[in-house]
Amino acid sequence: MVEERLNLEPEAQEIFECVDEERNFLLSGGAGSGKTYSLVSVIRQFIIENPSEKVACMTYTNAAVREIEERVNHKNLNVSTIHDFLWDNIKHFQKELKEALVFLANDDNVTDISIAEVSPVPADYFSDLEKGIQYKEFFRIREGIISHDEILIVANYLFEKYPKLCDIVKDKYKCIFIDEYQDTSRQVVEIFLTHFKNSARKNIIGFFGDAMQSIYEDGIGNLDDFKGDEEDEVKEVKKEQNRRNPQKIINLANQLRTDGIRQIPSTDSTAPNMINGSVKQGNVFFLYSSNNDVEIVRQYLIDNSGWDFNNSKETKELNLTHNLIAGKAGFRTLMNIYDSDQILKFRDRINKYIKEQAITTDFSGNTFGEVIDILQLDKAGGELRAVSPTAGMQTFIDNNVELFNYAKSFNYNEFSKIYVSKDQLLDDKKQDEDDENKKGSKRDSLIKHLFKIQSNISLYKNGKFNEFLKITDYRTRILRISDKRTLKENIEELIYVGDKTVEEVIDDANNKGICISNNDKLNSFKIKNRYLYNRVKDVKFSEFQNLYKYLEGQTPFSTQHKTKGSEFDNVLVILDNGRWNDYNFEYLFLNNGTQSVLERTQKIFYVCCTRAKENLAVFYHNPSAQVIAKARQWFGDDNVIEI
Fold first, then answer.
1. Is 9 buried (19+), middle (13-18) or exposed (0-12) by CB count in 10 A?
2. Residue 299: which H helix or E strand, with range?
3. How far is CA 336 from the centre of its chain?
4. Cα–chain-centroid distance for residue 399?
């Protein structure tokens, strides 16, 4: 054994036994186990022992890439996101890329890559592209531009079809490590564990992660289909320590795990969950009441446990959905516009009917209202219902008659192309103010413009004048001292938005030169999305400011999915599925119901509980006697409290 290995933790030493055998491995570790520490240790040791070999490390986010690069800075290490890694290894094979896109576009089983008006797609469809096939943050198949989802499909196809491609990557990297493997697409895992077997070259694939934290639907979840004791199977190494959570939270979390891992507190006296040589005990509470007033719950924790909900870095309230947070955080109107517009859902119902019935009528000269009338004419019974609003849609329409009449006045072709999604409003949420924005936000051009306005306001209010001067559009007008005085007057007037609407503030910021609204992206948005713009423009700008605070991590609120990977002193988990049928917290406590829903709920609850470094509170509205009985078993009699 190499001498330096004796200083490695036992799990890393076990990993190097796999490395010596040129065998693929998996490090499985629960929350707070130090999986990234193990990953970094293994990378460093491998580089020491193999100074001429290159190593690749893939992870899920750009933030994780930066963290690993900061901890291991070496010329032989290539750290990237999975998507970037795949693209870097296929982008030079343009002929094969073009052939792959044509093949996949003509494959009826591949719904994510298609060119609707061209069937079949001819072999030379992409031959005239000046820049070839490109990978960007958006998808435009006709221009040969693929994005995140498509690159996984294309790469999987190429690695399966061309073993030579597997040879090239294996020759380039002696070891390939994949962090947070459970969030990785099955297509990616197939590349490295199935298609790579078609190459006779040798290399090692190492996976790091936790199956219990697989909370995203597009992730593989676990490697059960690939694990085993045989030489060509993946050897699992379990890491059972926990460095983050106090004892009571570890005890609770262990009752939630279903994969055989039972965590124990770290024996390292420097671990965050240790104090004076002993593991912290922490606190766990199961709070319940007959009413659903979470404000009472917060006040109870403030009064009895000293929680500070104004400190978003120390204390977080975790809800399952953004919709459950919108009212509390003060952006309900915007959330309703982007996520609950039943008129747009009715439009989608009409579009679907036209497509399914293969109706070839040219509606380009008709309004949306005229198309409805044409389709409903002389219909009755089931046929009429198919082109009429559902009960929920009709209730929304009855409550928004003026909006529906406005929608009906739109040209049908224009109205049918309007795309509205909550991601356009909510994408790229930070956990706290120090978090970094990710690459390729899905926010639409209007929301980005409003963010720029509010960023100007916030930077100036917080005394960050140099940063303010860098982003304000007024900077191009500053030629003399008097211009700075004018800028000061303008931004100070803009700060006090009062009851001004979004449109009024956009105009005000433009007129004052703080944030120019006459730009291509915003103008294009107004033209292509008139319906959406005209809804948002009348919302109070102060409501957008509430949204800004939420997305910038300045509130105690977070969704349960978004909190994965973070940790806080105090965590309040709200057990409300928000009418999301993929989750059911009663199933969780009673261990029954649909298996897929139960597993999904167990995992999200596990992730939530293990975010807490000191104190955990769970609130359940109006639980049954059976739920309370299970809570007493999990949390302890004294910690189950009716408030």
1. middle
2. helix 294-305
3. 20
4. 33
Cα dist from 563 to 38, 182, 319, 424, 580, whole Å? 22, 16, 10, 20, 18
CA gap 32, 253 in Å, rounded: 11
> Taking the CA atoms of the chain, what radius of gyration do you get in angstroms?
28
- As a whole number, the mean pLDDT across the chain is 93
Closest alpha carbon to 607 in 239, 281, 318: 318
Quote the CA–CA distance of 214 and 221 in Å, as a whole number.
5
| Pair 270, 246: CB distance under 8 Å | no
Which pair of tokens denotes residue 224?
């059960």
**Tens-place pLDDT, residues 530-556:** 999 999 999 999 999 999 999 999 999
| Sequence-separated (6 or more) residues with CB below 8 Å from residue 541 | 450, 497, 500, 501, 502, 504, 505
pTM, two decimals, is 0.89
What digits encode the pLDDT tens for the residues 434-452? 666 655 678 999 999 999 9
Q: CB of 69 within 8 A of CB of 79?
A: yes
Task: Give which of 8, 17, 60, 61 is closest to 37, Cα–Cα.
Answer: 8
Pairwise CA distance, residues 299 & 164, whole Å: 63
